[in-house]
Amino acid sequence: MNVHHSLPVPTLELDSVAFNHRGQTLLKPISLRLAGCQKTLIMGPNGAGKSLLMRLAHGLLTPTSGKVRWQGAPPAQAMVFQRPVLLRRSALENLTYVLAINKTPRPELKGLVRKTQAMSALEKFGLAHLAKRPARVLSGGEQQRLALARAWLLNPQVLFLDEPTSALDPAAIKAVEDAVLEFHHSGTRIVMTTHDLHQARRLANDVLFLHNGELIEHTPADDFFTAPTSSEAGAFIRGELVW
Ligand SMILES: Nc1ncnc2c1ncn2[C@@H]1O[C@H](COP(=O)(O)OP(=O)(O)OP(=O)(O)O)[C@@H](O)[C@H]1O
Ligand SMILES: [Mg+2]
Question: ATP-binding: present as a keyword of the record (predicted)?
Answer without folding.
Answer: yes
